[in-house]
Write a structure and sequence with these properties.
Length: 237
């Protein structure tokens, strides 16, 4: 058997070490050396991201079950933060090339207990988007503290919405609503191309988040968006 030269072996090792890690279920984009610099790129009016593609405070725990995708899902295991958003803060940078109105959804589960109305929500904020609101039958509501009215029923503060899932089907499903007993869908508007910040913070312990998406409803149906496998390309800022 002929042995490879040290130079060739060194080249092969370097090539393997530079290959992107695709275990997450996303595309073949490389992982940024500093996760703070990670940017998820909108393409064709769609942003689709595995939630675990980030760095998390210690109270967020990575778990996995047969319904989750990628490396698994993150669940908040710390104290509940029902009235105070901002605890266990995570930020995602989203590069929007096609501005406009996007619907927000995430794929989440209730991992504690058997009641679908408990342990079913987290906080969400888009502080630098041009508009962030809930909408139902053409009527809009805005987060408390945004300076805009009307505001949702139940918890909201400092520009944050409580985003919940309903029903007693506890396993992962695509849903994102705000306003207690008057569910409104979630929308974000970007007037110009650019990189925007999406913030998530803990509210209910046991709320597991697998992935999230933003999409234009004139480009995709609900089913087309939620069954897409076109995960957003990652670039490093």
């Amino acid at each position: 058997m002929k042995l490879q030269s040290p130079l060739i072996l060194t080249f092969l090792i370097l090539l393997m070490s530079c290959s992107p890690d695709n275990d997450s279920g996303t595309n073949s984009s490389p992982t940024c050396q500093n996760p703070v610099n990670t940017v998820f790129n909108e393409k064709d009016n769609l942003v689709l991201v595995e939630f675990e593609e980030n760095v998390f405070p210690v109270e967020w725990k990575l778990e996995k079950n047969s319904s989750s995708t990628g490396q698994g899902y993150y669940v908040w295991t710390g104290d509940q933060s029902l009235g105070t958003p901002g605890n266990g803060l995570i930020e995602f940078k989203l590069k929007i090339s096609n501005p406009g109105k996007y619907r927000f959804l995430w794929n989440t589960a209730v991992t504690i207990g058997t009641n679908g109305t408990e342990h079913n929500d987290s906080w969400l904020k888009f502080s630098d988007a041009d508009k962030f609101y809930g909408e139902k039958n053409g009527n809009k509501i805005y987060p408390k503290g945004s300076g805009l009215t009307p505001n949702p029923n139940g918890s909201s503060a400092d520009g944050w919405f409580k985003i919940y899932r309903g029903g007693n089907d506890l396993d992962f499903k695509w849903q994102a609503s705000t306003s207690d007993n008057d569910a409104h869908n979630i929308y974000v508007e970007f007037d110009n191309p650019g990189t925007y910040t999406m913030q998530v913070s803990a509210r209910s312990s046991g709320h597991g988040i697998d992935k999230f998406l933003l999409y234009k409803e004139e480009s995709y149906s609900f089913n087309e968006a939620t069954t897409s496998s076109n995960f957003s390309e990652i670039t490093c800022n």
